[in-house]
Amino acid sequence: MSAEPGWPPGTGRLILEETDSTNAEAARRAGSLALPVWIMARRQTAARGRRGRPWAMPEGNFAATLVLREADPGRAALRSFVAALALAEALDATAPGAAVALKWPNDVLLNGGKVAGILLESVARGQAVAVGIGVNLAAAPAPGTLEPGALRPVSVAGETGHATDPEHFLALLAAAFARWEGRFAAFGFAPVRAAWLARAARLGERIVARTGEGALAGRFEDIAEDGALVLATPEGRRAIHAAEVFF
What CATH topology corresponds to 206-246? Predict the structure, then answer.
């Protein structure tokens, strides 16, 4: 447990020099740790994003996973929004003046490019959730390594010139997450949803959501109470629970 000033009380911290991925580390350790706990690694050898995609992690970038007790899958999924707001606040503090926006379902944008991603996974036999977070603090992956149509990758250093130590960023992120988690626990999803929408990228604009059944275009109208993306289409309002969003 850390006694560092500003570190949220009751939250553990584990710093590793290297691991395959912090989410995999969380899955292995969740049953033996006092939760909640942040697991951060300075290097990852097999980092991954959504749908099993590889996640590049140049030296100096940030990778950590928060493990929380949560057995309700619906509430667990909403931690993506809590994490996004915490990331936005940590980036505000790290890069004052930069434009930070949130992209459904789990990306954070800096000056219009993707700077961070969130990956939620169930661990401890469904009794906990691992909230994995990767942030391009020092460097961004080469655009050619991404799928066609993906947003350009950016880094905090590249966009703002600010150099940030991963451990310092973890302290900012952990404190911000604890604040939003407290609001979520006390008041439910409503304040989280309102704050997320206030930072939402392309709200009110036309976007394309690609699901396993095809692509659906419409105006990004809202986020539902269960976290679904709400599109206004020629056929009416559609709530989408899982998709890749393209601008």
Answer: SH3 type barrels. (2.30.30)
Query: Is there a cis peptide before residue 8, judged by omega within 30 degrees of 0?
Result: no
pLDDT per position as a tens digit, 165-176: 999 999 999 999
- The CB density around residue 52, as the number of other CB atoms within 10 Å, is 6
Give me the architecture of the 12-198 domain, per CATH: 2-Layer Sandwich (3.30)
User: Cα separation of 231 and 229, whole Å?
Assistant: 6
Per-residue b/e over 93-123, b at no fewer than 16 CB within 10 Å?
ebbeebebbbbbbbbbbbeebbbbbbbbebb
What is residue 225's three-state secondary structure? coil
Predicted TM-score (pTM) of this structure: 0.93
Ordered by start, the domain boundaries in the chain are 12-198, 206-246
Tokens of 233: 């289409």
How is residue 103 written in tokens?
């992209």
Selection from 3-12, 42-51, 68-77 with the highest mean pLDDT: 68-77
C-beta separation of 141 from 53 below 8 A: no
Instruction: Please list, residue by residue across 153-186, b when 16 or more beta carbons sit within 10 angstroms of its beta carbon and e when fewer do.
Output: bbbbbbbbeeebebeebbbbbbbbbbebbebbee
